[in-house]
Amino acid sequence: MLHPSYTDLMEVVNSDVEPGEQPIVNSRYSIVMATAKRARQLIGGEEPLIDGKGKKPLSIAVEELNSSKIRILGEE
Is position 74 within any domain? Predict the structure, then answer.
């Protein structure tokens, strides 16, 4: 089981959205794509924004997203 859950990650990402505006993330697919992209950046040599010692790139990406160290930008 993934911890945090997709629902938790979607709440974190959409926490900055004003009432009445569309959420940035509407589906699990968006979360998966964003974390996969960040994991590829980490594999490519980017420095982690958290202590990622001994963790896999995808785990680091999920943790960065959950702790609001990275953001998902809307299509605008």
Answer: no
